[in-house]
Design goal:
Length: 389
Amino acid sequence: MSPPEPKHTQNCTRFFSLNTSPTVFFPLFRPATSPFQLVTAWRTSSSHFIPNHLSPRALPSSNSCFPLTKSPPIKRIFTHFLFIQIFSVTMAASASASIYYFLTLLLLCAIPFTFSELVKEQPLVLKYHNGPLLKGKITVNLIWYGKFSPTQRSIIVDFINSLSSAVKPKIPSASFWWKTTEKYKSGSSTLVVGKQILLENYPLGKTLKNPHLPALAGKFNGVGTVSVILTAKDVAVDGFCMRCGTHGSNRVGRVRGTFIWVGNSETQCPGQCAWPFHQPIYGPQTPPLVAPNGDVGIDGMIITLATLLANTVTNPFNNGYFQGPADAPLEAVSACTGIFGTGSYPGYPGKLLVEKSTGASYNANGVNGRKYLLPAMWDPQTSRCKTLV
């Protein structure tokens, strides 16, 4: 029996209910704004969402508050505010009241406090709900729906191979980022690229409905597998742009499998799903970063895919690690929305590495000389969002 449709909405993310059989969806939303990769979860018969790149962060986490103590502009604004207040009360009609308020403000200025004391960061805790996680060898099967160039496909395949590569690339590396998933009970999760299907003739058309996703994923359903559906830039999917991707589970016979969907937002909504490589459609209008692989749409997909892979292995069946309601959880990476480097805050992804020859921003090295930008992941040992740089 399917659960009732969730009524909750958060920021620019909506929750949907699908009338498909035992299917769990974990959409990855990036509401159009800036670095706030808001990932929400949506529920069908049992389902979840994942946040967007562009929505405000939902909960305090490592680097999730504005870096007030390290932000000269904010300090200046506060100082100017105090001077304005002092000037205003000094000019007030009542001389005695002016002196009183003046002395009060002067006393406040003398108190040795910092902004960090006013806005104290609270630990972020994702509760373990005693369900199975995906551990050991995990085969990642790829379903390419629509037209992708060989270069685009190689960027994504190299990324997946980079997560569990036996060859140690330069530090910081994508494999080191992925090792954080080992801290979630029961050991490591080793990803191996399995079969690939090219559906360049759009067998279900160029507009996919939500029930099409588990149907496509069913081509590779099996224990210890994750089916990844990648839709091309000219393919519309229900709810796309409000969400940039989804992860869920479905059952075929006695086998319960997991799947991921990620869409290429290059022409449909790059301001929502390709930030920080594209100008956000709302929020702080900072200049976009240069994409490390020279493809705004594909590099945006990498961020979404990284988020969904981590969320899938740590919460595959809606009873793993998450915080909040089961039908709208914050998961391993979706709990750390918009954080890519130290010192991040809404509108600013944080301090990153820059490739001198291209000016591209990145924080992870991969196989075959690849470079990627990966979001922060929640670390169970420190209860904080962990960045590579």
